[in-house]
Design goal:
Blueprint (H helix, E strand, L loop, with lengths): L16 E6 L2 E6 L15 E5 L2 E5 L4 H54 L3 H36 L1
């Protein structure tokens, strides 16, 4: 089953390495060999000699059962250890994904706010600015004329 556990060309159960890139860096997740032989689990049985030759006998005596149970316990312990390693890597990837998703949503909302201007409101703002400019030009002109009139009085 370990050999068929791949996804998009990577199989962490056959010692592949998966590199996940994100903004500002990347993380490499190293897999492990999850085959029964790599877990030290004997699947062939103990070789016993018989009158007719050598045959494989599984669990013929209690010591064979204890040996296999011990191997299974070691295999389970290795799977738990590797599961913990993969879980911590997954946690880092999920945190980075949540951060990236939040950042994308924030930037999208900001872009939408910038481009979703009300044309009527912007037209009214433009008219107000034009009116202010016209009034300030007129006020400057009147103050200039008033200064010239005062100057003429002193002459």
């Amino acid at each position: 089953m370990a050999g068929t556990g791949g996804y998009k060309g990577n199989n962490l159960l056959t010692n592949d390495t998966l590199t996940v890139g994100f903004e500002g860096g990347s993380i490499s997740v190293k897999g492990f060999n999850a085959y029964a032989s790599d877990m030290k689990i004997n699947t062939t049985g103990a070789a016993k000699k018989s009158v007719t030759g050598t045959v494989n006998v599984k669990w013929a005596v209690a010591s064979d059962i204890k040996f296999d149970l011990n191997n299974l316990d070691k295999g389970v312990a290795k799977l738990k250890s590797e599961s913990s390693n993969l879980s911590s890597a997954l946690s880092v990837i999920n945190i980075q994904q949540d951060f990236s998703t939040s950042k994308i949503n924030l930037l999208t909302t900001g872009a939408n706010d910038l481009t979703a201007a009300d044309s009527n409101e912007e037209g009214a703002n433009m008219l107000m600015l034009q009116t202010r400019q016209s009034l300030s030009t007129t006020a400057l002109s009147l103050s200039s004329q008033a200064a010239q009139s005062v100057l003429k009085l002193f002459q």
